[in-house]
Amino acid sequence: MTHDRTEAMTMASRIVILNQGEIQQIGTPEDIYNCPDNEFVATFIGSPSMNMMTITNHIDA
């Protein structure tokens, strides 16, 4: 077990991502990095850090 993300991503064959004791995703480092299951996993693992924002699309009629 480690709290070091870099160590986990480079040394582990499988990773469990927890958020407040709840499992968010289990998988290989490659799967978690390339296909995060949710926004928490994406922002936790992403490098460089991700900025999440709400986008509204206005279509002129």
TrEMBL record:
Q: Name one GO molecular function term.
A: ATP binding
Matching InterPro entries = ABC_transpr_MalK/UgpC-like, P-loop_NTPase
**Entry GO terms, CC:** ATP-binding cassette (ABC) transporter complex, substrate-binding subunit-containing
Return the PANTHER family for the record.
MALTODEXTRIN IMPORT ATP-BINDING PROTEIN MSMX, OSMOPROTECTIVE COMPOUNDS UPTAKE ATP-BINDING PROTEIN GGTA
State the protein's name. Multiple sugar-binding transport ATP-binding protein
Species source reads: Staphylococcus saccharolyticus
Q: What EC class is this?
A: hydrolase
Which keywords does this chain's UniProt record carry? ATP-binding, Hydrolase, Nucleotide-binding
Assigned EC number: 3.6.3.20
